[in-house]
Amino acid sequence: ENIFDRSRMAPKTPIKNEPIDLSKQKGCTPERNPITPVKIIDRPQPDPWTPTANLKMLVSAASPDMRDREKKKELFRPIENSEQSDTPDSLQYDIVDDTTVDEFEKQRPSRKQKSLGLLCQKFLARYPNYPLSTEKTTISLDEVASVLGVERRRIYDIVNVLESLHLVSRVAKNQYCWHGRHNLSQTLKMLQEAGELQYGELMTFQHKEQDLEYKFGERKKETILPSQDRPLLDFSEPDCSSASANSRKDKSLRIMSQKFVMLFLVSKTKIVTLDIAAKILIEETQDTVDHSKFKTKVRRLYDIANVLTSLGLIKKVHVTEERGRKPAFKWIGPVEFSGKTDELRGNSPTSDSLPGTERGACARYQICATGKQRFVRHTSFNGAQPCEGTRRKVSSEPNSPHQERQDEYCSKMINLAAVCRQKIEEDTRWVARNSSITSPFSLLPVPGDSDFCVNPLPQAVFPVAQAEVPNLSLPTGVSSQAPHPSTPAASKTENGKATLVPNQPFLCFPSSSFFMLCGGLQENNLSETLPTAGDTGNTSAQAQAAIPPAVCQKRSSHKCTSPSSPAHDEEPAAKKQTMEQSDLPLSLVVPKKPFESPKYESTPGSCCPSAVHLETYHLDLTSPAAPEAASKESLDCQEQEKPSQNTDPDEPCPGNEHISKENTNQPFQPQYLYVQPTTGLSSFNFLFSAYQAPGAISLASNQLPSLSVPCVMVPSAALASFPLVCSPSFTSPLSPVPDGSFSAAASMNFSMSSLASTTPVFISTTAMVTPKVSPAPSVDLQQPAHPALHLSPVLTRSCSAVKLDSPVCVGHPVTLLKLQQPSSTPLTPKSIRPAHHEAFFKTPGSLGDPVAWKKNEGNQTRSASSVQRRLEIPGTSPD
DNA sequence: CACTCCCGCCAATTA
DNA sequence: TAATTGGCGGGAGTG
Which residue from A631, A688, A709, A840 has the highest number of Cβ atoms inside 10 Å of its Cβ? Predict the structure, then answer.
């Protein structure tokens, strides 16, 4: 283009002299240009010949001013030329010279041409997407600005966004280093994880936004507000220095960009509407936000969106919601990248659940290895991944009702998430400060790590631990809570993934999540089998336990609730753990890997300790359970203080949650029995679904009988490594059933169980499945659910609210799906929401930490499969 | 009129 | 203190 300009320019200049032959000019011949040239001449084009000069020329040409000048000149020309065509010239030019005219015209008129998106494309065109690692390209802002013919201010807009994705990094004043997209997948992954943590919860909570707002709002406002923004990821890469880096405030554009991307990554549909994003990004509570602020945020989002669009990461779409059409953006970039972009993407929907998980797990592991693992973004999980397929599909079809729903949900979730996020952020910050941990990523999680750090073993040992860590990292206190919510989701996914692991006889649960399993269906048997069981089921706990102990403590300390009392403690701990696990990573991670890696086993010992805590996890696992658990936990912690929470009494969910909580607290008892490893067993933990009764799921938790599950034994050690294991075999039938029910059941159980034991355990949840629930719910849910499953944990969470949850919980690919469905059914999104809200509310109230709260809710929501709801409802029935 | 989002003032930060 | 960054919001272009 520039060249053209030049040519044009040049000609023009000469032309001046040439003057005037209209004929010539008009003529198609190059000569016409001459006319234009005059302008050029006028302008001192100092060095037309010089490259720089050319650039300048171009720039000037491009710039309006230049044009104007040119125009003026032209005008003059006529005079000069007098007859010639002066006047005509301009017109003629346009007409005649394509190039010239075009350019001119283009330049002038089109605002589009000046668009940030276009500018960004030009900018990007200057650098290779995948530069040789060795060579580093430095970018001079001044130079780029001049070359592109724009003000520097605009370059900042672009660079800031690119920097948020690590495509460039600032090396010095006016100097940026171009990295290209080599690390894009990693960055996205991090963002996804971070997003899950932050928003996942939120998503889950969606409904509860309000609640959250209240709660959070207060806190945030007071404490957090300003800082909230802190770059989520600051990833400034590992470099620690990054800290210093934060120049100025938060650099909202960078942060906003990251958050914005997170929303996409966390979103099931991968579609985010601007208004929702704006709300979420407005850190504060949505409530407060004033209109002007909202408008400003939207403007910024457009800026960011333009850049992201240029990067090919998103595209503009319209979402039709109840209210009408809304502008939105759809993520078209890589969806999953567990460690690497590829993984995620590649997965087919079906596979998603599994693969995603696995991958996610892998990534996590890797991370762990790295060291910072703690933070582990593991948390993040890919739980979400599974959802991808679904999401995408959905998203692709904005118009489809489903999508719409999702969107709505998402939006809601997002809002919630936002709130949660805030909390989280606070927490994280808090944590971070304390911890000072720097992981490669500065992600929030890190902070949490510190907490986690406490538990060395776990981390080292499992991914799970890691997963937990992340949770922790977030807000410590919060994290614990948060985890719950997330966990559930995770669990679901995990379950799906982990649980089902096809190959293995047993299901694994991700440590983090833990959870569940399922299996078979037998409902009744179990209880019997489990001799011990008496304890609540802490199944997953065991696994978690390993980690948790320390963590729990920490968490507990931080957050909440009292960990101390054993019973309570456990719960709390469990919660915490759960939360942690659940929160983020859990779901995702746990499932798969644990299994695979022998480590776990090896580590078992470590695990054992934690086992207790694991209980909590159990809850999570089952996503449904998880929710419950979460809720319970939260409840425990909070003790459901929030009656209000149950805003939606209607929905079972809340009730369920409550119930679950209650269960824990109340009568319910652990549905699962946990057998500790006593003697010989030491190494194994058993879980029972005590009640699992699947059918019961609904709570039935009490209904021990229901569970058929025989039992699941898990070596404690193993557990440690794995969150849970189930014998699939049991499930055989299960699998299908279980899914939905399963999760629910599980969750229920968990919650109950959570209380108690420390040991690891396990659970079979087979029973859980309680067919009853599952089926019905599943149906509804299923559809949604499926997606849910796929959904990333976060999504699921959020979505869960919507539907999937339960199903999601299951998370499992194959089996899970079924389960999910069932479970899901109950949960209709709608219903779910309310439920969630309630649940959340309750939870939150109890929870000190917003985050935890959120998580809990999230869990619930997600998990909140019908089961949960049921549980809750009954239990709580508060409202 | 609503949606986009360019433009550039001017404050915060840095050198 | 000057220069660099970048928040922010008016208001214009577009459909």
Answer: A631
Q: Are A36 and A74 in contact (CB under 8 A)?
A: yes
Query: Whole-angstrom Cα distance, residue A684 to residue A745?
Result: 22
**What are the structure tokens assigned to A420, written together?**
């949660």
Cβ-based contacts with strand B at under 7 Å: A 64, 111, 114-117, 150-151, 153-154, 172-173, 247-249, 274, 295, 298-299, 302-303, 305-306, 316, 326-327
Per-residue pLDDT of A482-530, as tens digits, reads 333 333 333 333 333 333 333 333 333 333 323 333 333 333 333 333 3
Q: Which nucleotides of C are covered by protein (CB under 7 A)?
A: 4-11, 13-14
The pTM (predicted TM-score) of the whole model is 0.38
Give yes or no for CB of A244 within 7 Å of strand C.
no
Beta strands in A89-151 (DSSP E): 137-140
Residue A110 tokens read as 């089109």
Cα separation, A709 vs A617, in Å, equals 19
- The pLDDT tens digits for A267-316 are 777 788 887 788 777 654 445 557 778 888 888 888 888 888 888 888 88
What's the pLDDT at A438? Answer: 30
All structural domains of chain A: 116-208+248-331 (1.10.10.10)
Tell me the CA–C1' distance in angstroms for A251 and C6. 7
What is the SS3 assignment for A53?
helix
Tokens 């590649």 correspond to what residue?
Answer: A346
Sign of CA dihedral A426, A843, A860, A372: positive
Mean pLDDT of A123-151: 82
Query: What's residue A191's pLDDT?
Result: 82
Please enumerate in sequence order all residues whose Cβ is within 8 A of that of A581, keeping only pairs 6 or more positions apart, or say none.
Answer: A464, A467, A468, A471, A483, A486, A487, A490, A491, A510, A511, A512, A513, A514, A544, A587, A590, A617, A620, A723
Whole-number percent of chain A with pLDDT over 70: 18
Least confident of A106-120, A178-192, A333-347: A333-347
Residues sharing a CB contact under 8 Å with residue A539, sequence separation 6 or more, in sequence order: A514, A515, A516, A517, A614, A615, A617, A618, A621, A672, A674, A685, A687, A712, A724, A749, A750, A753, A760, A761, A762, A763, A765
Euclidean distance between CA atoms A112 and A480, whole angstroms = 48
